[in-house]
Amino acid sequence: MPHALFRLWIGLDAEMMQRVCMDAVGFVQLQRKDDLFAAGGSAELAFSLTAGELSYTQDPETSPVQKCEVTEVNAGKWLCEAALWTRWTHVGRAEAMTSCRLLQIDAANLAETL
Q1: Which part of the chain is the Cyclic nucleotide-binding domain (predicted)?
Q2: In this structure, what CATH number is given to the domain that contains residue 90?
Q3: What is the domain extent for residue 100?
Q4: Which among 40, 47, 78, 101 could bridge 51 via Cys, Cβ 3.0 to 4.6 Å?
């Protein structure tokens, strides 16, 4: 997993990380124009983009920004990481700009496994 904390855990307890992978990790495939999540929804999953490109849009109505902001998200980047550590609500929208493949981590299943 391309996250520093998960790499550390693998080094400390590889068996536990095998359980995490079996119980909390999955994959998501998106086609161009598919939404990954929308503003206002409860964030229960964290994502790592492994292939493709997403567009993340924040709007002043749902996010603490002054004007609409669009961020390009490329392979290797994480989205919704906060969902793993706290209760989180999406403040933006993620849409696939190309076909995408993402690794997803279910926050509740991760907590149970740890």
Answers
A1: 22-114
A2: 2.60.120.10
A3: 25-107
A4: 101
